[in-house]
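User: Sequence recovery, please. Input:
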């Protein structure tokens, strides 16, 4: 081995060691408004803001965080005595299918409760209740694209998604988007509504959970940050 190639090899190993030693840091997510414990009127628009700070990805205040990757879920808990339990559940990491949804482009065309370019995810779950055949059919739609079922707009194909990723995203949507006690929003700022489904006892509370999953080091070993806030409504 020549001296030069030996040197190149040593550098190669050295840079590998440096890459391995580099550690990803967990993002810090904070629901800045509304603050925990406050009481709001039901069915009114309540402004919300979320801040994200990640050592590798950047700061949401400098618009370095992709707004569409920050999610807020609002869940109604009927049993007022379940506060501790609800906080604990809300602090658990997002399901893999939900994280994949956050990292794909779906939210540029779909919202959960209102039509955008594509139909609302709640409408999709109404038309296709959760089942294995619906999961398979819709994953195929997402992969290959779709038109003419909901209107004149076209969903392009998603050649960048693996069939397994499409299946996991669709399965998560079918299992969760139709839950009348939950709402989902994307973005670091917006307006949310506290709603209680018809026929459900109004004596409970709302749990808000904001989350952001970072990009790891070169998209390896991503970490999720979250924040949980509890609200009352009347
Ligand atoms: C560029 C806009 C756009 C993007 C991006 C997009 N969709 Fe769609 N989506 C649409 C439109 C428009 C329709 C309605 C198509 C139709 O009428 O057949 C649709 C329909 C659907 C349907 C229902 C299909 C059916 O057979 O009824 C599902 C499920 C769906 N989208 C999921 C997703 C998921 C998951 C993603 C992200 C991986 C995604 N979409 C990304 C625009 C989009």
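Assistant: Recovered sequence (234 residues):
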């Amino acid at each position: 081995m020549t001296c030069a190639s030996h040197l190149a090899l040593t550098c190669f190993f050295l840079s590998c060691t440096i890459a391995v030693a580099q550690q990803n840091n967990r993002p810090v997510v904070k629901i800045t408004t509304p603050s925990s414990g406050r009481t709001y009127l039901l069915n009114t628009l309540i402004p919300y803001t979320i801040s994200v700070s990640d050592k590798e990805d950047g700061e949401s205040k400098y618009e370095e965080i992709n707004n569409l990757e920050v999610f807020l879920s609002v869940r109604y808990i009927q049993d007022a005595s379940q506060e501790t339990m609800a906080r604990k559940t809300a602090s658990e990491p997002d399901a893999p299918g939900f994280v994949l949804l956050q990292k794909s482009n779906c939210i540029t065309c779909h919202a959960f409760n209102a039509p955008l370019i594509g139909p609302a995810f709640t409408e999709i779950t109404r038309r296709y209740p959760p089942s294995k055949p619906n999961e398979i059919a819709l994953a195929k739609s997402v992969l290959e694209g779709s038109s003419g079922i909901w209107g004149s707009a076209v969903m392009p194909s998603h050649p960048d998604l693996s069939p397994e990723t499409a299946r996991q995203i669709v399965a998560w949507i079918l299992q969760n988007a139709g839950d009348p006690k939950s709402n989902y929003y994307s973005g670091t700022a917006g307006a949310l509504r506290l709603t209680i489904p018809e026929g459900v006892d109004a004596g409970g509370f709302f749990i808000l959970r904001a989350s952001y999953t970072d990009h790891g080091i070169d998209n390896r070993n991503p970490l999720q940050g979250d924040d949980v806030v509890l609200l009352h409504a009347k």
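The pocket of heme C is lined by residues 104-106, 108-110, 117-119, 124, 138, 141-142, 146-151, 153-156, 158, 161, 169-170 (CB under 6 Å).
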